[in-house]
């Protein structure tokens, strides 16, 4: 069983670390597995890098981040579950910095555990430290948590990277969002398309805060401003800061983490798609959970959302004919059915309108994994509505329900709105299809949906 990825770039190669159960295809016995790649596509598995061994992580070595400090030395921050079952933040460093594969990692006795829950923090809900960034002479990390039902990103600061102090208030918190796992806090440029490293500040720089919601198992992000002098983050005025917020992916995509790639000057986000198969099947096949294709992210020119697009390195895989690119032309937008403003949740709307019920414009899209007689197919499709302001609302759905006749799998519908200008009456869709996963990108990466699909033919 694998869980979310974390990437470290070191001396021109990519190191992938991820939660892994070496004893089976179910959650448990988590170690940090380690693979290495020169291109983010072809990977070689190495020995696990981190596993429970010390009082401060004996009951678990969980998620994660990697930081390369300006002196070139990498550090991993991870959550350990200590002997008392409390979640604490630890660090590990390479045993031999001259080994470019960084095979062995050590957890120094000095300074571990690095951050423990104080009286204010719930030590059973305190995990997933971020990559460190620098501001005003301090190093900063976030740790995800909750206070009752309020989701929280605690901020810790350090001058020497050894002693970390919690700031007076969290960097950000939002009532009724529950536990925030895997926070990610990164800068994006408003003036160019290249990625920025974590410590970039400045007037052409906005900040993204992404959190993974343990309650819904979806993620959301906001775009806003980071105020390092006040240790505060504020989402922009028009951003939805809660369950209905923007998503990097509206489908089976969780616990994502981004990294800055100094090789190609880009910001790459990598998520995790869990298995929706039955546990018995997972055990039988011997694995569960996948990493979808890593995605480059940047700010949309509107400044209101991100664009996510599969990394260009996958061009090398194109010979496998596992992708479909379509441009849909919409001849007559006039006949679109009216959009009811009470339809707030795109996923609910996909369920309500279903994939087989004909509307005025839509459903139209792709039938992936279709059997010859259409007993099974996974539709990725759109519907277009007309809103009161005369603008159009584009709904994108991916429906796993008809994708299999098997009954012992979870077959969800996923949906997201696509904020796209339809004045040229065109809508673009790119789907990457691979065995049991369909990753679809609408309108240049404005809306993405990852689905797991299981068919009788596999
Ligand atoms: N799962 C881990 C956490 C992380 C979550 C525990 C993601 O570290 O927050 O397995 O699903």
From TrEMBL:
InterPro entries with a match to the protein in the record: ConA-like_dom_sf, Fructan_Metab_Enzymes, Glyco_hydro_32, Glyco_hydro_32_C, Glyco_hydro_32_N, Glyco_hydro_beta-prop_sf
- So which domain of life are we looking at? Eukaryota
Q: Where does the Glycosyl hydrolase family 32 N-terminal domain lie?
A: 4-310
Which GO-annotated molecular functions does the record name? hydrolase activity, hydrolyzing O-glycosyl compounds
**What keywords is this UniProt entry annotated with?**
Glycosidase, Hydrolase
Q: Name one GO biological process term.
A: carbohydrate metabolic process
Keyword Hydrolase listed? The answer is yes
State one Pfam family annotation.
Glyco_hydro_32C
Assigned protein family: Belongs to the glycosyl hydrolase 32 family.
Any idea what this protein is called?
Cell wall invertase
- Organism field: Gossypium gossypioides
């Amino acid at each position: 069983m694998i869980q979310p990825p974390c990437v470290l770039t070191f001396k021109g190669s990519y190191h992938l670390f991820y939660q892994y159960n070496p004893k089976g295809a179910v959650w448990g016995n988590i170690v940090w597995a380690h693979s290495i790649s020169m291109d983010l596509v072809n990977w070689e598995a190495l020995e696990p890098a981190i596993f429970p061994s010390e009082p401060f992580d004996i009951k678990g070595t969980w998620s994660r981040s990697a930081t390369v400090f300006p002196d070139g030395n990498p550090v991993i921050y991870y959550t350990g579950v200590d002997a008392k079952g409390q979640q604490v933040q630890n660090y590990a460093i390479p045993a031999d910095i001259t080994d470019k594969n960084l095979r062995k990692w050590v957890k120094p006795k000095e300074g571990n555990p690095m951050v423990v829950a104080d009286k204010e923090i719930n030590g059973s809900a305190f995990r997933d430290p971020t990559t460190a960034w620098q501001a005003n002479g301090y190093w900063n990390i976030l740790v995800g948590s909750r206070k009752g039902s309020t989701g929280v990103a605690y901020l810790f600061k350090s001058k020497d990277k050894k002693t970390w102090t919690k700031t007076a208030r969290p960097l950000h918190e939002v009532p009724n969002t529950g536990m925030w796992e895997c926070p990610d806090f990164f800068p994006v440029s408003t003036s160019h398309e290249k990625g920025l490293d974590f410590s970039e500040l400045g007037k052409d720089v906005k900040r993204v805060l992404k959190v993974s919601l343990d309650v819904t198992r979806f993620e959301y992000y906001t775009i806003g401003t980071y105020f390092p002098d006040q240790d505060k983050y504020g989402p922009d005025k028009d951003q939805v800061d809660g369950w209905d917020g923007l998503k990097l992916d509206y489908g089976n995509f969780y616990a994502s983490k981004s990294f800055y790639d100094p090789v190609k000057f880009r910001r790459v986000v990598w998520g995790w798609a869990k298995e929706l198969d039955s546990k018995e099947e997972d055990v039988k096949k011997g694995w569960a959970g996948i990493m979808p294709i890593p995605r480059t992210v940047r700010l949309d020119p509107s400044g209101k959302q991100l664009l996510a697009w599969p990394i260009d390195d996958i061009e090398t895989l194109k010979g496998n004919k596992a992708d479909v690119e379509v441009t849909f032309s919409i001849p007559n937008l006039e006949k679109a059915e009216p959009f009811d403003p009470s339809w707030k949740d795109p996923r609910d709307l996909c369920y309500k309108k279903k994939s087989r019920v004909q509307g005025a414009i839509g459903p139209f899209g792709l039938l992936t994994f279709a059997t010859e007689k259409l007993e099974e197919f996974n539709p990725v499709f759109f519907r277009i509505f007309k809103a009161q302001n005369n603008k159009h609302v584009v709904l994108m759905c991916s429906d796993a329900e008809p994708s299999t006749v098997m009954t012992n799998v979870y077959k969800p519908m996923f949906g997201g709105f696509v904020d796209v200008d339809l004045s040229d009456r065109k809508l673009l869709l790119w789907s990457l299809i691979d065995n049991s996963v369909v990753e679809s990108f609408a309108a240049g990466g404005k809306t993405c949906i990852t689905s797991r699909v299981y068919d009788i033919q596999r």
